[in-house]
Amino acid sequence: MEYLIRFAQAHESFRQPEIQALADLAGVEVEFLYYDKTSPFCIVRLPDEAAARAVISRSIIAKDIFELWGQGINFEEVYADVRRRTEDRWAQYKESSFRFVIDSFAGKRSNEQKRQIIQSFSFLGFQGAIRMKNPDQDFWVFEDYGLDMSSPGTPRPHGEEPKVIYFGRWIANSSRDVVNKYDLKKRRYISTTSMDAELTLITANMAHAGPGKLFYDPFVGTGSFLVAMSHFGAETFGSDIDGRSFRGKEMMERGGTMGVLSNFQQYGMVGRFMDVFTSDLTNTPLRSYQFLDGIVCDPPYGVREGLRVLGRREGLKSEEVIIDGKPAHYQPGYVAPKKPYGFEAMLNDILDFAVRSLVTNGRLAMWMPTSNDEIELPVPMHSNLEVLNISVQPFYSWSRRLITYRRLPEGQVSDVSQGRQVTDAEGVYADQLNAFRRKVSPLPFQRYNQN
Amino acid sequence: MKLITVNFLACAVKGCKAAPASYPLHFRDAELELQELEFQPEFILNIIPRIDWEGMRVMAKELGFPNIPDNKPEGDALKDERLLKELHRLLLETQVVEGRLCCGNCGHEYMIKEGIANFLLPSHLGLVIPSIAFLNAC
């Protein structure tokens, strides 16, 4: 059966991967029959209506899904296609209450034209009541005038006709409205680096967060990913090398509630928040065995601040420090020593950790920055992880990518020959260790950093 | 810090990873708190196979919870809702708010303050094999 998905015009390269991830999660086959990155309309083949509902119900970038009744480049074609595909089903809806809605993309119709279009479908022979609120059946006419790339946003010249027209029966809405519920502006605890609700929820979909599952974020920060994953029912925990990031000012200065926990309270999901603790991925206290259903992270890029990992630079003392007869590291205010850490080394450490900790078919969804010019930084790969998809969020001078991996069963390996083979160059300063930082940092910043 | 989390943790010191005594970590001066949370049978059922039962029994015994079955429940035993609720209470509702977690191998103690454990290592532990002097500490 063919279905029409109506997408939001946002995060284009995430749209198909999200639908694919949700079809995988629902255990159904999806085939993309028509997809155009400038159009909100996409046609897919799915086994049945139940599958269509299952796939769309969690989607964040799709708005809704429709049973495709017909399509064409003009209305005559649409009528013929509707007749051909669905004539045997018209009787089924004869007595149902219904309504018609017209949605024009990059174009406009007057109310009179809309009325005429609706009238023109009277050959369907529906005799039920017309209800604008809660009808039994909801029929939609979609007109795609095609995005005018030269001047998007300006109205079409009068009299221009749509390039493609679709007609469909509404099946189900997506979860797109939850983006508003988790809007950062209304969230109790956030910071400048908290990822927005839409992207964290998409990430949770890509990683298959769901009820009964255990998910972990090794760079938890203000816990944006934990919130998104728990929204879909997962039990979540996280850690961060800087405990201040998840504690928050409220807790540290006034003994109030921990920042990350206060977000879970706000959304009524305290039962799905497992823990946060202070630790560093290179010296993680997590045992080395396959117990996580998924890992989601946005590792620090080391642009605003050089990357740090536990350890000491060459030449610093390695003996235990004793103050007033007590080991310094047991005293309040002790700050563990940290050393510069390379971006490549960190990404490799994340993949190694994922291989050790994910259950078979468990997923890692990792964000990674790249510069827009020159050669792209290669995708980090590991022979025990399959790269499922890569989506890009472009910014002015750089982009970030969401890479989704699947932990392969033992004995199965992926082809890593196309992937990242580089390891960190020898270096001491953050710039020498981080190709991304070198590419995006303006020169004065580099000079300042090396002094 | 919840008791379930402790089941997934061992000493963070590199040289301890291979030593059996580095797991489970032992609580010292633990101050416990019980917080009622929404019961999630699906999660408990999913996580039981991944719980190290012996480690959990050791921990529960040290904290004074005696009623843990000797063996990990399997098959029909998992249909017993009372058992799942008890495990939910122990693993997710019981939290350590203050105390220390101690490695049985190197003796290093990890602080828990206001429910948050700190596993960052001081420099002498981050890079070197722990000294013999610690071995008898726990």
**Average of pLDDT of chain B:** 89
Q: What is the radius of gyration of chain B computed over CA atoms, rounded to a whole number of angstroms?
A: 16 Å
CATH top level label of the largest domain in chain A: Alpha Beta
**Main sheet of chain A: which strands, in order across?**
2-3-1-4-7-6-5
**Counting H and I runs of at least 4 residues, what is the number of helices of chain A?**
14
Beta-strand content bin of chain B: 15-25%
Class derived from helix and strand content of chain B: alpha+beta
GO molecular function (chain A): tRNA (guanine(10)-N2)-methyltransferase activity; tRNA binding
Keywords (chain A): Cytoplasm, Methyltransferase, RNA-binding, S-adenosyl-L-methionine, Transferase, tRNA processing, tRNA-binding
GO biological process, one term (chain A): methylation
Protein name (chain A): tRNA (guanine(10)-N(2))-methyltransferase
Structure commentary:
- The complex is a heterodimer of chains A (451) and B (138).
- Chain A is built from 14 helices and 18 strands.
- By secondary structure, chain A is an alpha/beta fold.
- Chain A folds into two domains: 175 residues, VC0802-like; 272 residues, Vaccinia Virus protein VP39 (Rossmann fold, 3-Layer(aba) Sandwich).
- Chain A has a seven-stranded mixed sheet.
- In chain A, α1 packs across α2 and α6 crosses α7.
- The N and C termini of chain A lie far apart (65 Å).
- The C terminus of chain B is likely disordered.
- Chain B starts with a helix and ends in a 12-residue tail after the last helix.
- Chain B has a four-stranded antiparallel sheet.
- Chain B is 29% helix and 18% strand.
- Chain B has a single domain, classed as N-terminal domain of TfIIb (Single Sheet).
- In chain B, a hairpin with a 6-residue loop joins β2 and β3.
- Chain B is of the alpha+beta class and 138 residues long.
- Classes of the chains: A alpha/beta (451), B alpha+beta (138).
- Chains A and B meet through β9, α8 and β10 of A and α2, β3, β4 and α5 of B.
- Chain B: Keywords: Cytoplasm, Nucleus, Signal.
- Chain B: Belongs to the TRM112 family.
- Chain B: It is found in: Cytoplasm; Nucleus.
- Chain B: GO terms for molecular function: protein heterodimerization activity.
- Chain B: It comes from Aspergillus ibericus CBS 121593.
- Chain A: It holds the Pfam family Tmrp11_N.
